[in-house]
């Protein structure tokens, strides 16, 4: 991947059209028309041997005849000609090509190689990038570039739209033009064989012309790159996603459409949520969201005020708001008094402000002005229903005037709903032209507002500081993996409760006392030793759900009960499945279920995103992706809490308010430990805990099923999100004998990292931040501590303080560009721990990390005043230069050089 080559995609200075044509309805003709009519200022160069000129523009007979190397080429020919054209363009020096042809993956050459693979081989050999194939093209309105087959041009604006579907592109474009909504870029990915969502998200997330991003996704290929790019971009601007394939049939259709991998919709939902993106379910919701994004300000809070000329629409709006978890603003007595002065006595005296059906422009304007003046609202929704007295357009004009004149216009969000068709159309057009969001229905307007609220909530949740798991809970990955690998060596594919118990105990998870016996006699021996009551269950590799074949008997209180149960279970299993192999029986202590609640937890393996954790209530017909909340590992306590809240909110998990029922902290500890098991143990393919008995602080796993990967399976990249790299922890000793731990930073470090940052002297802060700056906010600290280990690294040095707690003494961090071509570092050490080798240890660790990461270059900048930093860098092998104009010292290391990280 290379962001530098995308520069030619987003800022081309010249375009060649391969296969340009004068024939109507040919792709090469439509491309030429669109390019010539859009106002692109660079050279437009048609390439065709058929014509001397295309649409009046001098044509070139072949690519080699072009007078300059085009930044962008659009290939409009049939599929069979594309590989040779790509090779010639790449050799000629073209940077990016858009391929319109479809079916290239299915069509083969005489050697049995698909045309798509052949074209990609040529492009990669010469470093050329490909958009498509099967692409509609792209529109860049700020450049006046329409290199697409679209039926219309796009207006300039600040929304970027990226889609795998050409039909969705044209639909959205048509709607946006009607609403007067513009775009910074409009890109059809097609089959996304080369340029994909992750690279575009990286570019658009940094693009100053783009304030919001919309995606239409059929499938995702590079899971880790996609989530890393989405997470980085969503920190800066909202990302809205519409994803096809919500049903099994839809997944199959999407797979046929783009050839991508068909993943589970619930896991996609979890991935979007984890990256801070907002999902919409259909085009209507998407259009409403676009409307709000095009005209909204950053939301300062969630309190919504409503003005209406009718009670019914206002009630519909309130219902939608409350059902979606929104907040209705409460008006102060002062605000109500101000409204009393301008509205009839019959007005509602509360929010919603119902200003009665014959409300005129003056009343609407006065009410809006008063609400905008108040401090009790963060957004205002103005509703209007058709009235016999008319004034629909007059009211709209008055409101537009109030909004534009008000000092809070850039802080408050104003949404409007003018219901009706003919009587409301002109008013809605006025609002659109005035840059004010407008909707056809009250529910649509509230839905758009809630998208803004949900984006704000997502960002806050993702910045929440997680608490640490209690110290007394073990995490013994060495024991767990040893047991799992021993099972693999024996050829085992499934581990049941009695075999899985020691693995789970290594992570502090409790299972009910369980024994495996071969027959009824052994069961009686165990029963007499363990005590009654007991449960007896069949053990068979052919039976997934024991209860389906009545293979479970409970509350057995004597040896006679045990023998009778064993015989009855065996008979029932053979009746249900004559071929079932019965290996023996499972004997379990009966769990004390009074006052407790049964839940179910599973870990499934999604074909796109890998392991996913599911939480619900279970049952034999349980579908984890339909009946459970889903989250991607790694989980910490904050993310686990968010998962439990999601499960309760969506009724996948019900708090039955039993005396010893659900305890939030205990559930979060269990889910976090399960996440640790999945991260630490690549041998595990899936995990099913059914049921799990939640009795307040005590959580007991009653039945466990662990399925194992084959011992030869490569699972190194199975996780969609790179977990905390525990293997990078190490201890070191400083010159004064102090023992410190060097390790990657964790989200849980935020309070101590804030204390570390506040401990820096004014001089050190000045050197660190290149100037005077105030104390870090929580939001800034979250960015520094909740890092994406796939994109950046921060090492901290900690030591035990006088009270036994860890104290952060120093930190070094660096982030890499998406191409992994260069990392830029920064470092700080507490003033009372400088000069004892701590800075050297941290920087050496960072150098080794990026060398192992195959990053070619490590750079850093410091101020002239920070000569100690420059001396340290030079001693470790950095090339140090002085920028006299910027008053900066630049430190540069070629990490691939033989002498990298060698003390001078």
From TrEMBL:
Q: Where is the signal peptide?
A: none
Q: Which InterPro entries match?
A: Acyl-CoA_Synth/Transferase, Acyl_CoA_acyltransferase, ATP_grasp_subdomain_1, CoA-bd, GNAT_dom, NAD(P)-bd_dom_sf, Succ_CoA_lig_flav_dom, Succinyl-CoA_synth-like
| Domain of life where this protein originates | Bacteria
- Transmembrane intervals: none
Q: What are the residue boundaries of the N-acetyltransferase domain, all occurrences included?
A: 740-898
One protein family per Pfam: ATP-grasp_5
Keywords, A to Z, come to: ATP-binding, Ligase, Nucleotide-binding
Could you tell me one molecular function GO term of this UniProt entry? ligase activity
Keyword ATP-binding (UniProt) = yes
Name used for this protein in its record: Acetate--CoA ligase family protein
- From which organism does this entry originate? Shewanella mangrovisoli
């Amino acid at each position: 991947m290379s962001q530098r080559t995308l520069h030619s995609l987003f800022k081309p200075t010249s375009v060649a059209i391969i296969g340009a044509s004068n024939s109507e309805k040919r792709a090469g003709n439509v491309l030429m028309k669109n390019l010539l009519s859009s106002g692109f200022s660079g050279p437009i160069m048609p390439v065709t041997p058929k014509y001397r000129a295309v649409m009046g523009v001098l044509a070139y007979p072949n690519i080699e005849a072009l007078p300059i190397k085009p930044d962008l080429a659009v290939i409009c020919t049939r599929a069979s000609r594309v590989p040779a054209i790509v090779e010639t363009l790449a050799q000629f020096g073209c940077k990016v090509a858009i391929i319109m042809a479809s079916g290239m993956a299915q069509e083969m050459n005489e050697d049995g190689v698909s045309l798509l693979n052949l074209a990609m081989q040529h492009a990669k050999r010469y470093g050329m990038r490909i958009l498509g194939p099967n692409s509609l093209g792209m529109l860049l309105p700020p450049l006046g570039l329409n290199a697409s087959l679209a039926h219309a041009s796009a207006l300039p604006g600040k929304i970027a739209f990226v889609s795998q579907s050409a039909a969705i592109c044209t639909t959205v474009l048509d709607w946006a033009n009607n609403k007067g909504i513009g775009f910074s870029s409009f890109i059809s990915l097609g089959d996304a064989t080369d340029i994909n969502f992750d690279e575009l998200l990286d570019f658009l997330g940094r693009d100053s012309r783009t304030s919001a991003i919309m995606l239409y996704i059929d499938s995702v290929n590079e899971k880790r790159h996609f989530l890393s790019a989405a997470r980085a971009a969503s920190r800066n601007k909202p990302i809205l996603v519409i994803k096809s394939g919500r049903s099994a049939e839809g997944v199959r259709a999407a797979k046929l459409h783009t050839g991508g991998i068909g993943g589970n919709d619930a896991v996609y939902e979890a991935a979007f949520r984890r990256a801070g993106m907002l999902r919409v379910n259909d085009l209507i919701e998407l259009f409403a969201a676009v409307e709000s994004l095009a005209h909204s300000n950053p939301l300062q809070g969630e309190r919504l005020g409503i003005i209406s000329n009718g009670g019914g629409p206002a009630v519909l709006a309130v219902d939608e708001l409350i059902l979606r978890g929104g907040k209705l603003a409460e008006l102060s007595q002062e605000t109500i008094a101000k409204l009393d002065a301008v509205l009839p006595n019959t007005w509602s005296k509360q929010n919603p402000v119902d200003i009665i059906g014959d409300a005129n422009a003056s009343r609407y304007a006065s009410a809006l002005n008063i609400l905008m003046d108040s401090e009790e609202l963060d957004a205002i929704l103005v509703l209007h229903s058709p009235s016999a007295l008319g004034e629909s357009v007059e009211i709209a004009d008055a409101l537009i005037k109030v909004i534009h004149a008000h000092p809070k216009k850039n802080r408050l969000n104003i949404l409007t709903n003018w219901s009706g068709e003919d009587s409301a159309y002109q008013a809605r057009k006025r609002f659109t032209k005035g840059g004010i969001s407008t909707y056809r229905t009250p529910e649509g307007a509230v839905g758009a507002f809630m998208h803004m609220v949900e984006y704000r909530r997502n960002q806050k949740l993702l910045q929440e500081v997680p608490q640490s798991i209690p110290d007394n809970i073990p995490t013994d990955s060495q024991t767990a993996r040893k047991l799992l690998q021993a099972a693999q060596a024996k050829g085992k594919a499934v581990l049941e409760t009695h075999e899985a118990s020691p693995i789970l105990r290594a992570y502090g998870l409790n299972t009910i006392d369980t024994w495996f016996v071969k027959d009824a006699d052994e069961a009686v021996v165990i029963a007499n030793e363990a005590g009654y009551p007991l449960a007896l269950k069949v053990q068979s590799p052919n039976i997934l759900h024991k209860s389906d074949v009545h293979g479970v008997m409970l509350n057995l209180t004597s040896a006679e009960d045990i023998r009778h149960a064993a015989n009855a279970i065996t008979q029932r299993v053979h009746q249900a499945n004559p071929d079932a192999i019965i290996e023996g029986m499972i004997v379990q202590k009966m769990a004390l279920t009074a006052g407790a609640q049964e839940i179910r937890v599973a870990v499934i393996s999604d074909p796109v995103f890998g392991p996913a954790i599911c939480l619900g209530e279970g049952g034999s017909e349980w579908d984890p992706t339909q009946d459970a909340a889903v989250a991607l590992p790694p989980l910490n306590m904050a993310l686990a809490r968010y998962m439990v809240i999601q499960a309760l909110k969506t009724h996948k998990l019900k708090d039955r308010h039993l005396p010893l029922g659900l305890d939030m902290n205990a559930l979060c500890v269990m889910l976090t430990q399960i996440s640790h098991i999945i991260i630490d143990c690549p041998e595990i393919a899936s995990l099913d805990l059914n049921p799990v008995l939640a009795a307040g602080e005590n959580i007991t796993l009653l039945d466990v099923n662990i399925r194992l990967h084959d011992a030869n399976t490569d699972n190194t990249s199975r996780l969609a999100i790179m977990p905390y790299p525990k293997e990078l922890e190490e201890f070191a000793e400083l010159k004064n004998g102090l023992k410190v731990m060097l390790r990657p930073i964790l989200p849980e470090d935020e309070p101590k990292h804030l204390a570390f940052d506040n401990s820096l002297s004014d001089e050190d802060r000045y050197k660190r931040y290149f100037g005077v700056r105030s104390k870090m906010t929580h939001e800034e600290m979250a960015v520094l501590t909740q890092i994406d280990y796939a994109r950046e690294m921060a090492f901290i040095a900690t030591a035990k303080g006088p009270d036994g707690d860890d104290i952060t003494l120093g930190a070094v961090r660096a982030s890499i560009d998406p191409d992994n071509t260069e990392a830029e570092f920064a470092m700080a050490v507490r003033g009372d721990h400088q000069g004892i080798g701590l800075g050297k240890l941290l920087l050496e660790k960072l150098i080794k990390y990026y060398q192992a990461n195959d990053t070619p270059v490590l750079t850093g900048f410091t101020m002239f005043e920070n000569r100690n930093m420059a001396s340290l860098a030079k001693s470790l092998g950095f090339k140090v230069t002085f920028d006299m104009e910027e008053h900066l010292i630049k430190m540069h290391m070629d990490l691939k050089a033989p002498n990298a990280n060698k003390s001078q």
